[in-house]
Amino acid sequence: MSKKIGTKCVHSGNIVDDKFHGSISPIYPATTYDYRKTDTYPRYFNTPNQLALSRKISDLESAEDSILFGSGLGAVSSTMFSFLKSGDHVILHDSIYGGTINLVNTEFKKFNIDFSYIDINDVDLLKSTIKKNTRIIYFETPTNPLLQIVDISLISSLAKENNIISIIDNTFASPINQNPINFGIDLVIHSATKYLGGHSDILAGSVSGAKEHIDKIKKSGINYGANLSDYTVWLLERSIKTLSVRVNAQNQNALDLAKFLDENSLIKKVFYPGLVNHLSHEIASKQMKGFGGMMSFEVTDKINSEDFVSDLKIISPTMSLAGVESSITSPSKTSHKKVDPQIRKKLGISDNLLRFSVGIEDIEDLMLDLDKSLKNNVR
To answer: Most buried one in 17, 165, 175, 237, CB count within 10 A?
Structure first.
């Protein structure tokens, strides 16, 4: 029986409680098992809860297999280093998460791994950047924090033509809105801390793809030791049950708020792929089922961005994103703080840019909160 994604969120990957017949997956917190009967060990990613959650995420992403890590960046680094060696080359979209940029800039040089940051939407530039030793093309869509859209099918086709592994960070979209494997991408990464967890109380990461690729990542991951505790795995499995409900509510709220802010004279620009004036709205419409709960907007010089954020009553100033509660942050002070200021400016990340993670509150309350704070802080 073919199940739709909301049903998969609830029922895929559950552990049947045969002993006590409970309606939810039991937790198996043991860190040691009878070696005569099994090689189960948490660091091997093969405890009952780890395997069950991997099946759930795989089902949501149309993947053969998945693996779980202690954080999103743990998933990124473990995946990268599983396929790279000294002398290899990586192409990265120049508009990606600041933590990933810092990982590449800091760690790749230690191992003589070459890398190029480019606008991978420029097809000619992408083709000319590919080298004989290029092993990975890495990108996000929508991007953090400017919500740029990358044509997934185009990237996957170019990667396959050149025998390159394509890796996407699908965090901002979530599996509800976008399934890159269906467009030919090799590996899909999530910071499960965000939408998969959804309640701002879980730190985790995941990678999904073909079993051949996941097996390779597992072999390296065992050495890196970045696995999750089974209690966190169980909490994440529980949270994903409401993923479809949460994300669809956030999709609708974000679209309404993007239109609301786009019409406000105190807002210079709104970055949201659901707006028809977004540069890549047509591409987003083809590859996304919903436009997500993330947006960014730039206030005009009439508004002091710090005072505006401080005056909000419902929307909270927090670093992370994708919780059921709405939150707002300054990328130049958080996610891209470690990025060189000149590069931030080149990327379009100004000090007046604010990233807005839309929650599931009543839309009228969110609109009123934004409107009041904007009016109160005109200078």
So the answer is: 175
